[in-house]
Design goal:
Number of strands: 2
Oligomer: single chain
Number of helices: 9
Structural class: mainly alpha
Strand content: under 5%
Order of helices and strands: EEHHHHHHHHH
């Protein structure tokens, strides 16, 4: 991913790093976490995302889930846009959802990646296998997030 005279990690290299970082992690359904990050990266691409946004799709949960450090992200051979998007999508401990969504909206390119993330998280097939209380809580959480982000249309 050459850009602005810099040589950056390729999307294939970013995918390998992200999959390695999440190795052994499972989602709420017990599926390998790699399925979620792949869905977000592919969803970002399907929505017309740039290479920098697709890279952020692969990496969007790595810092939040303590799989990679903020220091790693800061020093990685990635475009500043990718780093800014990953940072924007990294929810801080105790952070109000309103602050989190405001940061996403203020960061160029982040909303598209978050849209892909919410689309996968809100997938009725994924929610259907959870216990009803968890599925209901998550559906409400994702609906509130969409509302705050202005994503009241189709994801």
């Amino acid at each position: 991913m050459a850009q602005d005279g810099h040589e950056y990690l390729t999307l294939s290299e970013v995918e390998t790093i992200a999959r390695g970082a999440h190795r052994g992690q499972v989602d709420k359904n017990g599926h390998p976490y790699g399925e979620h990050i792949a869905a977000v990266a592919h969803g970002t691409a399907a929505r017309g995302g740039s290479a920098a946004q697709i890279a952020a799709g692969w990496l969007h949960d790595t810092v939040e889930d303590d799989r990679l450090s903020r220091e790693w992200l800061a020093s990685a051979a990635l475009p500043e846009e990718t780093k800014a998007i990953v940072d924007a999508l990294t929810k801080r401990a105790g952070e109000p959802v309103e602050e989190y969504t405001a940061r996403i909206l203020a960061t160029p390119g982040a909303l598209l990646v978050k849209r892909a993330d919410l689309a996968h998280n809100s997938d009725p097939a994924r929610l259907a296998v959870l216990d009803p209380a968890t599925a209901g809580r998550l559906a409400a959480k994702y609906a509130r997030m969409r509302e705050l982000l202005g994503l009241t249309d189709v994801l």
